[in-house]
């Protein structure tokens, strides 16, 4: 008998011992378990804690392609979900799985919801997290884009470039930080100016460990120090001495793929695609087509 069948039989008795449980998996792999039962529950290798004050509104579900939504609410706790982690964006896009489970026999359970965290609000020592179902992704455009620039992300399955290749990544300690978005290094010999522009910066340790940002500018200062600037400040403090990884940038051009990365065979753009004004071109009626006079 499956866990779902066992739960169905238990519900049919009319005297139930059921509770709700949620598993939250952040994009960095950290997992949390919560339950509205008064004791901890353990299954699927997760301990679902009862002392977190987490609760959830009724789940809205529908047939067809409608988006399933619900909302989880709870008190902020240092031992569970911390306010600084929410502020840093560590729970943005986290996967959520919700069960209805027989707390007297946790093998009798059923998945009631599977999706991701959408809008996340916090304040007055509590948080409210909008939960969006799997059908939410159907609201996004999909398919191949036919354009001159490459559509792949540097290092992904389509690009196939190994970013750990020597000469394309640097990991080292920061000399200084300004406004949470301007990072100062030493000269970084071997990397020409602009090498990391359009690349990625990833913090390796400290309070902002695991957070990343897209690199807006890569330049030298008059004192010879290398300046890496990202588009938006990181949402956790970064201090001098923290270790940071910076990766080479790609502007998606055919020439860059060939000359900078030697990865032409995996280029995902269409460099010979005609310009938009090509569709307005019509056959010429002139006898001569060499630019000279018609006479």
Write the layout of secondary structure elements.
Layout: H1 3-12, E1 18-25, E2 31-35, E3 41-43, E4 46-48, E5 55-56, E6 69-75, H2 83-87, E7 95-102, E8 109-123, E9 126-133, E10 169-173, E11 176-178, E12 182-185, E13 200-203, E14 212-220, E15 226-230, E16 243-247, H3 254-259
Antiparallel strand pairs: 1-2, 1-7, 3-4, 5-6, 6-9, 7-8, 8-9, 10-16, 11-12, 12-15, 13-14, 13-16, 14-15
Quick take:
With 295 residues, this protein is mainly β. Helix content is 7%, strand content 32%.
Share of β-strand residues = 25-35%
Rg from alpha-carbon coordinates: 27 Å
Q: Report the top-level CATH class of the largest domain.
A: Mainly Beta
Backbone structural class: mainly beta
Q: How does the major sheet shape up? A: 7 strands, antiparallel
Task: State the low-pLDDT regions, or none.
Answer: none
Can you list the strand order of the major beta sheet?
Answer: 2-1-7-8-9-6-5
Counted up, domains total: 2
Write down the CATH topology of the largest domain.
Answer: Thrombin, subunit H
Distance between the termini: 91 Å
Q: How would you spell out the order of helices and strands?
A: HEEEEEEHEEEEEEEEEEH
